[in-house]
Amino acid sequence: MKLRFLLFLLIINISFASEIKWLSFEEGLKKAKKENKLILMDIYAKWCHWCNVIENTTYRDKEVIELINKYYIPVRVDAEKRPDINKKYNQGGLPSTLILDKNGNIVFGAIYVAPEDMKKLLLYFAKMSPKDIESQVERVKFHQELKYRIFQKNLKEKQISPVYIKKIYRYIKLRYDKKYGGLLGAPKFPIRQVPYFLMLYYIFYSDDNAKKLAEKTLYAYSNLIDKIEGGSYRYSTNEYWTNFHYEKLLRDQAELSVMYFNGYSLFQNKDYLKFANLILKFAKNKLYDKKTGFFYNSQGADIVDKNDTLLVSGEDYFIKSKKEREEIEKKVGYSPRIEKDIYFANNALMVSALAYSYVYNNSKEDLKIAENLTKNIINQAWKEKGIIHSKDLNEYYLNTQVYFLEALLNLYQITGNKYYLEKAKALAEIILKNYYSKQLGIYTDLKDIGLNIKNISFIDDIFAVNSRLIKQLYILSAFTGDEKYFQKAKQLTKKLPARASIDTALAYFIFIYKPAVIHIIGLKKDKDKFINKSFKVFPYYVFTQFVDKNDKILLKNLGYKPENKTVIYLCNISMCFEKLNNVDALREKVFKIYKNLAEFKNPFD
User: Fold this and answer.
1) Residues whose CB is less than 8 angstroms from the CB of residue 589 and which lie 6 or more positions away in sequence, other chains included
2) Three-class DSSP category at 475
3) pTM confidence score
4) What is the pLDDT of residue 533?
5) Using an 8 Å Cβ cutoff, are 591 and 203 in contact?
6) Res 448: pLDDT
7) Angle of helix 208-221 versus helix 250-267 axis, rounded to 10
8) Rounded distance, CA 444 to CA 552, Å?
9) Which residues are listed as membrane-spanning (predicted)?
10) Residue 526 domain-assigned?
């Protein structure tokens, strides 16, 4: 049996592995100022394949090491541990390779740089005069400021219009890969917004082609699922969905499993339920730490040893059978590395995935994990201004707050436990108070760390996070009767960019075709049955609330009176359409209302 993974052990001088004395960002900046040197910064992630490659080739090349040690201050930053630095300096992917001046200003930026190119790069900037370095910094700043001005221009208030939704549908059709599914080109990522948009377009425009594209997309994304141990790889390197980067990120497992549960709800295709469970199974089996009650962040793309020496590339391991994988692990003494770091944002996403699994799989175990995980996040991560990034970084980021707001509202929907609603309200108030930028009119990170308007595949950009927030504010308004949240969401929607943005279109849907809200008022003994039926209708766009008939305050806020039996009010945030007693009729009623709403909004279609 030929094992290509031995190649690295044969051609790399392992002694070079420790010859670059990498410093933290803060240490490197301090030393650069003291020694008046340029900084070479490497932004990486433990799960990243090309980060393993650059470590084992470029940064173990003797000449590269000599040049770095002679002319530069080497800085290495873990993108997951330090999202502040990653958002500010990332060049569009990992690894990101940057030359900085002694003050931390960008002189040059790229992604993976091969050894020979790195030598030329290091020599070029090492020989550049201080005046030329300063000029280069100014050029980079000019382009950054130009992008920022364009960004600000896109944030002018706009009218929410169905014309924009049709524009995005045309955009997707134009870019759609009719042969292989997903958007055209390579690499191909499982962009969750695409199938969600197509599902909504199918519902409200009765467009069978949108349905066809949505289903084709869901099947295309399923090619990323590891058929041996489950879990979804991060992306395909080609347009055919056949060659993969094999890292499995916790956030992807959470997001994609929820996407497939929703696909199953709408289309009633059991394949989607199977895909959701294959993905979730991996997260629970490989990434869940029962001792702490948290999920680890990832499984790496390759097999590396404790010195980060690449032993087996993902393409030589993950294509194998279970037995062959076990033989490889036994031979080299390692398996794909589990990144045992815990980030609260990604754990919040897992709460939502487990909440869905509780309903769709009737898994009380998953509900127990979800509730325990939520309790841990509240007890260990909830501080004055929301949820911190990690135990090691006591900083606040908008995405963490929004993901946990989603998690709380999902738990409230499936349990009817008012505790989660109260916590959601408290977190929403923190977001509204602390994360709103008066200058931009949208919500941003607590600190000015540089807006993430770049295309970084493992981070939601600022517009995606704001779009998600809009939906949660709508739900919160519907569940509390507080008009303030609805108005905040509407105001924010008007500020989203009018360029071809699926995130903007998803937000527009909410205000043009308002999602159904199912208020279940009644007896505790009926709670589980009614919630289960209601949540399964289509949870992405049909929201479920159980209110105990004895909760007089909440009933008053919502405008209902208690009855001696459990009843259902089928509404949206503006009006109620029908009062029901039969929960089994709910699905049919919801989609009939959606059809009528679509015909009313589109009289000429």
Assistant:
1) 570, 577, 578, 580
2) helix
3) 0.95
4) 97
5) yes
6) 55
7) 140
8) 37
9) 505-523
10) yes
Quick one: pLDDT band at residue 602, thresholds 50, 70, 90? low
DSSP symbol at 493: H
Residue at 273: amino acid letter:
L
The whole-angstrom separation of Cα 386 and Cα 550 is 31
pLDDT digits (tens, 9 = 90+) for 68-85: 999 999 999 999 999 999
- Sequence-distant (6+) residues with CB within 8 A of 15 are none
pLDDT score, position 155: 86
pLDDT at position 563 = 87
Q: What is the CATH number of the domain that holds 561?
A: 3.40.30.10
Q: For residues 501 and 193, what is the distance between their CA atoms, to the nearest angstrom?
A: 10
State how far the Cα of 225 lies from the Cα of 234, in Å rounded to an integer: 9
Share of residues in the chain with pLDDT > 70 (%)? 94
User: Tell me, what DSSP letter sits at residue 300?
Assistant: -
> Do you find a cis peptide bond into 95, omega within 30 degrees of 0?
yes
Per-residue confidence (pLDDT) for residue 344, from 0 to 100: 98
Q: Which of 349, 347, 354, 357 is nearest to 369 (CA)?
A: 354
Per the CB < 8 A criterion, the answer to whether 336 and 25 are in contact is: no
Q: Which token pair is 85?
A: 């630095």
* Domain assignment of residue 266, yes or no: no
HSE-CB at 496 with a 13 A cutoff on CA atoms is: 29
Domain with 22 in it: 6-153
pLDDT of 295 above 50 = yes
Kindly write down the DSSP assignment for every residue of 168-236, as one continuous string. HHHHHHHHB-TTTSSBSSSSB---THHHHHHHHHHHHH--HHHHHHHHHHHHHHGGGB-TTT--B-SEE
DSSP state of 428: H
The pLDDT value given to residue 11 = 47
Q: For strand 542-548 and strand 516-522, is the pairing parallel, antiparallel, or unpaired? A: parallel
Domain assignment present for 34: yes
Answer yes or no: are the C-beta atoms of 121 and 130 closer than 8 Å. Answer: no
User: Considering 132, 153, 174, which residue would you say is the last residue of a domain?
Assistant: 153
Three-state DSSP state, 567: strand
Domains held by the chain: number: 2
Read off the tokens for 287: 């990434």
Dist CA 555 CA 560 (whole Å): 5
Q: How confident is the model at residue 453 (pLDDT cuts 50, 70, 90)?
A: low
